[in-house]
């Protein structure tokens, strides 16, 4: 039954439609009634409507018998399966046909699949036993053994004797059954969780292109000794399930944990925050290549774990923290751990590492996040460039790539920031900021005396235009370095920080300039033994000085 307010004409409108009965209830809004209406829709048979009693009318497809209508399948109105055709008569005689769902079905016979099966078993008290519904009908069967039909509950129930025996059985076995069920449940749940975890790890391994990395390893005779695919179980054991006490640091690209492998080798395990799913294949290629990079001033990448949503990277462990921590952790007290000699050496070693990445490795590697916190110091305070989370490999025949801008504010190359074009000179700019940190002993974004934040690179470039360099650099630098050394490093720094990348030196030129300064300083120290004796206490301070 459908409720409607369809306007039939100016004096009548439809209030109710019964598809099953073929009736339409019409409300007469005029002072008179008409006996009959004929409606016509474009290219359709006429719809005949005649009044019945109580302001109800019946409808039919006019002018056709059921047999005639069924012969023209394209215009036959009863299109639903399980529908039938009915002849419609009025006081004037036969007027046409209408459609109705067959017994056991209900719905709209005028649309395809409109007649739906009725679940007769839902009818109240339809069977004195078990009701079985079938398409269009149903059948009844007797209640199964030891049960009888209960007119109160309208279903088959156990007899009183059976209920008593059942209750006794349940009472005797309930304790043992609950215990057994609990034990089985615990075992099954644990096994289910373990199986789920294994399946999840396998899925992550496939999604993270583990098969591709295995192919790259097997196809490269050298890679098998350098690249290792760790299981998640190995790294969980190495980090005590990634315990918070094992956290070494938190960076822009993830968190780093200290791990001890089964062979007692100490490693740093990096859990990255995210990686673009579309870049997984590129990431795997980079892992295979970066793990083959072997340079004394680059943190060694041993391998990775692909059994997590975001792959884990496993690096060599570097014990003495970062250059950033040593330069700035005690800056408020005005005392520093590293001597000027150490600073020159560390800068030269870091420059050599970047030069190697840019031009001496298998493919060019742009680090893209050079900063003092990514220059680590080993047990001998040798510089190790780390954190290739933002790095990009570049084919030999390309000088730049276009990428989404990544990096750290304070170190970010302005040209790269505005154009998105990454090249080796982007790393040169960031390295220039590290040189300013060594000279001024200030953070890349520092707080001025007035309390405002200022960019260290911009501050340095503006100050050297109006003040002597010795008034800008840290007091320790003035005490330990010669004026020529300070001016040389300041001049090199200014060139690294030029806005136009083409005006900046290459990392090879930077490394050569710093190495030349170290050579001159070394020759000067050998020429003046007393100076050498004076430098020894400064060099020793790097291992045991505390402020």
Automatic annotation (TrEMBL):
Protein name: Protein kinase domain-containing protein
Keyword Transferase attached: yes
Subcellular compartments: Membrane
Principal cellular location given in the protein's record: membrane
Record keywords, A-Z: ATP-binding, Disulfide bond, Kinase, Membrane, Nucleotide-binding, Serine/threonine-protein kinase, Signal, Transferase, Transmembrane, Transmembrane helix
Keyword Nucleotide-binding assigned: yes
Bilayer topology term: Single-pass type I membrane protein
Signal peptide: none
Coiled-coil parts of chain: none
